[in-house]
Amino acid sequence: MTDEPQNIFTILLVDDKMENLISLQHMLEEDNRVFLQATSGNEALKMVLKNNHIGLILLDVQMPEMDGFEVARLLQLNPKTRDISIIFVTAINKEEQNVIRGFSAGAVDYLYKPLNVNVTRAKVNVFEKLYFSQQDLKQLIADKEKINKQLERFMYIVAHDLKSPLAGAISLLSIMIEDESVQASPELKDYMDTVMGAARHLSAMITSMLDYARRSDTEGMEETVDVALLITDVTRLLFPPAHIKITTRGTLPTVAANRLKLQQVFQNLISNAIKYNDKTTGLITVGAAEKEEFYEFYVKDNGPGMEKRDTDRVFRLFERLDDNRKEEGTGIGLNIFKMLVEEQGGKVWVESEPGLGSTFYFQWRRR
């Protein structure tokens, strides 16, 4: 079945009396509404299964053969139809047991005969707005999943292209470390060992990225991560300049998380804090607070900071701030950071003051 235009709201009217269907449709007609009519429960079920775009069902309770309660119950049992909003239209009394039975069967509201025109229209208008809000949300989720897949593919290509030259560099470093001139200089050998350690760490990270990108299902990839050790690894990998000091405040937790994702989050924030720092002595502090459902981490720097108007823009894809910074970003890193955090239910935000620095916060769900 072809997709309905985005502004069309399809309503299924179910009543065993045709005159009631005609009257109800006349009452609710609007330019953007399409009406389907069924005169029995069986006919209603067939129509729902054939039409993927029904946004609301107005369902008469008292019908022969199959009453409205049974129709609603069967719709609730089917995963494809259980989310359709149902309003029962009934002439039966408003006793509590009947109302409870209706809600248990899947109804979201009631209309009582004889119908009040204004009340009927108002309720249908509310469910129409709700339907379009749900459609917008579904589209946003689909768009996000599409972007995630594109980023995973991009990550795979980059990691794959980096792995071969990095392996060559590690081989060359191994030969250089064994050279007599290097062995004869403890200081030079120490530097070379540090470079080799970072190269091997980067190689392991790339291997993890390739493994992650190959797997469409990320469930079961969690492990116990000591965040303090993770920050140490990230710092070693980033080779901060001598004038940049990276410290932790308080005790950082040990969390159950996908290590690669959490490492990407911290690496994005710390590398940005290093890249854009404009002070003679750069200070970067990592800390955490324990909340009810989340750990609340932060990365604080004493860099150039930003205007308040930029604190939301900075997380947008390909968005770059209009300033005079020497370093020019791609506008991708912080958007990836935001997506990784929101993927597991957390939020991101930044507090900043021009000239004094920025503090980036993010929530990571506790397990």
UniProtKB/TrEMBL annotation:
GO terms for cellular component: plasma membrane. It is an enzyme of class 2 (transferase). SMART domains: HATPase_c, HisKA, REC. It holds the Pfam family HisKA. PROSITE patterns: HIS_KIN, RESPONSE_REGULATORY. Residues 157-367 form the Histidine kinase domain. Residues 10-128 form the Response regulatory domain. Transmembrane segments: none annotated. One of its GO terms (molecular function) is phosphorelay sensor kinase activity. Keywords: Kinase, Phosphoprotein, Transferase. The modification 4-aspartylphosphate is found at D60. It comes from the Bacteria. It catalyses: ATP + protein L-histidine = ADP + protein N-phospho-L-histidine. Its EC number is 2.7.13.3. The keyword Phosphoprotein applies. Signal peptide: none annotated. This is histidine kinase.
